[in-house]
């Protein structure tokens, strides 16, 4: 049984615009980069974004990223998947002419992979988490603000981008390959949520709406919540158009803090007067770089979470193709990461 929560009018109208297949979406994990920044700006480093707050555990070649603060809760299971350790054969990523085939842990149903491979990868992932007895509840994501509250596992995946439950034996999951996966835990009420936040979901405040539904359904106090923001494309690599910057600026007073330099495309262009280029013929405004994790962390703070309870991975999916998948870097041939959270059966 489930209760879908969200604006159904927007749910229907957005499906064709934001298709579900476009989400690009131990030891300490070092934020080593394998590609240079595209710009020379230096991103401010937040204490909450320290990689020291994250650990990696490996089981039969499957590497899982976790937050120690969440591991302290014996009734909770959580984890963020990585690239290695699967049975899916992914071709490419070779700098030489001959094709390279890589065995990866793809956890999303992609055209280039078989359903049998994905199911085996998911079995391995859940086994590595010690969560084989939990029912995996995934979503048909379409970059919306739709939140589902689950009491039992649905017969078929529901369309939406966030889910919540306070029932044991359910393992809530979101798929990403650049977007931000966010796991929420209410240790006092024993309730959890999983959120998929791309730029569209972030613009629609999906993580704040998921928290609002936890308040309504489970009497959650945001000050009690723990939040883990998993690996995602960083502000070093996530280039977006000035129209995206304009949309954020129109909705958030602190949006300028999430971009390398906030430009909306409406700024005067001095080159137009220097080269006497007529209006409408000047080159378009340069793109900007957006830090999605910083934007969602700010929304968590605005929702009432304590800064010490927010744990942000600084692993960039586009920089760390050895460990993660990136739709921006790999295109349609990219695999999918899976971030999960659930309540163990008593």
Secondary-structure topology with pairs:
Layout: E1 2-5, H1 8-14, E2 27-28, E3 55-59, E4 62-66, H2 68-71, E5 76-80, E6 88-91, E7 101-104, H3 115-129, E8 135-137, E9 139-140, E10 147-150, E11 158-159, E12 162-165, E13 170-176, E14 180-186, E15 191-197, H4 199-203, H5 206-218, E16 226-229, E17 239-240, H6 242-251, H7 270-274, E18 288-289, H8 292-303, E19 310-312, H9 327-330, E20 337-343
Parallel strand pairs: 8-13, 9-11, 10-12, 16-19
Antiparallel strand pairs: 1-10, 2-3, 3-4, 5-20, 6-7, 12-15, 13-20, 14-15, 14-16, 17-18
The first-level CATH class of the largest domain is given as Alpha Beta
User: What would you call the structural class?
Assistant: alpha+beta
The number of domains is 2
Strand order of the largest sheet: 1-10-12-15-14-16-19
Report Rg.
20 Å
Distance from N terminus to C terminus (CA atoms, Å) equals: 20 Å
CATH-wise, what's the superfamily of the largest domain? CNF1/YfiH-like putative cysteine hydrolases
Shape by Cα distribution: globular
The largest sheet is: 7 strands, mixed
CATH topology of the largest domain: CNF1/YfiH-like putative cysteine hydrolases
Proportion of residues in helical segments: 10-25%
Number of E-state strands = 20
- SSE order, as H and E? EHEEEHEEEHEEEEEEEEHHEEHHEHEHE
Q: Beta fraction of the residues?
A: 15-25%
Supply the number of helical segments.
9
Mean of residue pLDDT values: 84
Residue runs with pLDDT of under 50 for 5 or more positions: 5-51, 269-273
CATH architecture of the largest domain: 4-Layer Sandwich
